[in-house]
Write a structure and sequence with these properties.
This protein has one helix and 28 strands. The protein is mainly β.
């Protein structure tokens, strides 16, 4: 594996690849930044290049930058019909900002200048998670205020719809689409819940997570398997990672954490979890095992864990927190990480 650190001079929050069919070195990267001196949050779109470098070291070529109304608490990207794209950011103030990206304009040398769409006051507290459907662009947003929203995105306006309001009884911290009508949520005071927009009124299924200790843990991230929508994985407090199969109708399986396995190498917060795209094809044929999962943590670990054997493979061990990461879903080899030490790290692994 080879890795490169790209200093940013500002705090790096979330990082996401922009979906594309281009070669890896022509990929577009979306990142959220925060300048502690000015207090200004921003979103950047960069092209990742290295073809002209004699050493093969990648660099970031800025294609667009937008100042945001609030510090970003969640980020997602999606591909739309017509080879256009979206970057969607939720803020700690409760707003959602949508940045449309023109696939033709982004390949030119001129910076993108299209104004983003801002939906203020969508939530009364931090928007903790956003997820966007490819093609339709429908945005799922959940907040600390216990509300779930779906935002229809058009070229000129954002049309929000309130799906659920817990009236403060619970607080949502993570969410992910499973299909165009189904999604999964998790949060404080709430179990892992499966929702169906065709069946309003509440979740259609749920599963409680068994945390270590007397107090409940906190879920930071969840993911749904791209081809097996009944499988989801969550990461949270104390290095805990759980996998839930909707078909089982029983407790989630604990893959990592204090009591899960002696091979667990993380005891701090797990900030993000994703099914490992490099293993999606090979694992999809084995319905009896939990597919491999990749995660990053507060203590600087990026690793994969195999659900069946619970074997952990460490990919990175940084001296600072890895706040977020994303994997190129097309080749599974290219990984980008947002580091606490104001850097973006690019990792190219062998498969």
């Amino acid at each position: 594996m080879a890795s490169w650190r790209l200093p940013q001079g500002r705090a790096v929050g979330s990082v996401r690849w922009l979906p594309s069919s281009a070669a890896a070195w022509d990929r577009m990267l979306v990142s959220t930044l925060f300048d502690p001196e000015t207090g200004k949050p921003s979103l950047e779109l960069n092209a990742l290049g290295s073809k002209d470098s004699t050493e093969g070291r990648p660099w970031l070529d800025l294609r667009g930058e937008w100042e945001l109304p609030g510090r970003v608490s969640a980020l997602a990207t999606a591909a739309l019909q017509g080879e256009n794209f979206l970057a969607v950011a939720g803020s700690i103030e409760g707003s959602v900002t949508v940045v449309p990206v023109d696939a033709v304009q982004v390949t030119t040398s001129e910076l993108l200048d299209k104004e983003p769409l801002v939906l203020s006051g969508l939530h009364e507290a931090s928007v903790c998670a956003v997820d966007v459907l490819d093609d339709s662009g429908d945005c799922l947003a959940v907040g600390e205020d216990g509300k779930i929203s779906v935002v229809k995105i058009s070229e000129s306006e954002l049309l929000p719809k309130r799906v659920h309001d817990s009236h403060g009884h619970i607080s949502f911290s993570a969410a992910h689409w499973a299909s165009s009508m189904e999604f999964v949520t998790a949060g404080v005071g709430a179990p892992l819940q499966w929702w169906d927009l065709r069946k309003p009124g509440g979740p259609v299924s749920q599963c409680r997570l068994k945390w270590d200790g007397s107090s409940p843990g906190f879920v930071h991230s969840l993911d749904v398997h791209p081809s097996r929508k009944h499988l989801c994985v969550v990461g949270g407090s104390g290095g805990s990672i759980f996998a839930w199969d909707l078909r089982w109708q029983r407790d989630a399986v604990k893959l990592a954490g204090v009591s899960a396995s002696k091979s667990a190498i993380v005891e701090s917060e797990v900030w993000e979890v994703k099914y490992d795209h490099a293993s999606t094809i090979s694992s999809s044929s084995d319905s009896g095992k939990v597919p491999p999962v990749m995660f990053c943590s507060e203590d600087g670990v990026l690793a994969t864990i195999e659900g069946g054997k619970r074997n952990v493979t460490e990919l990175l061990a940084e001296p600072c927190a890895i706040n977020s990461f994303d994997v190129d879903c097309e080749n599974g080899k290219d990984i980008v990480c947002g580091l606490e030490h104001e850097s973006i790290l690019f990792l190219k692994r062998r498969i």
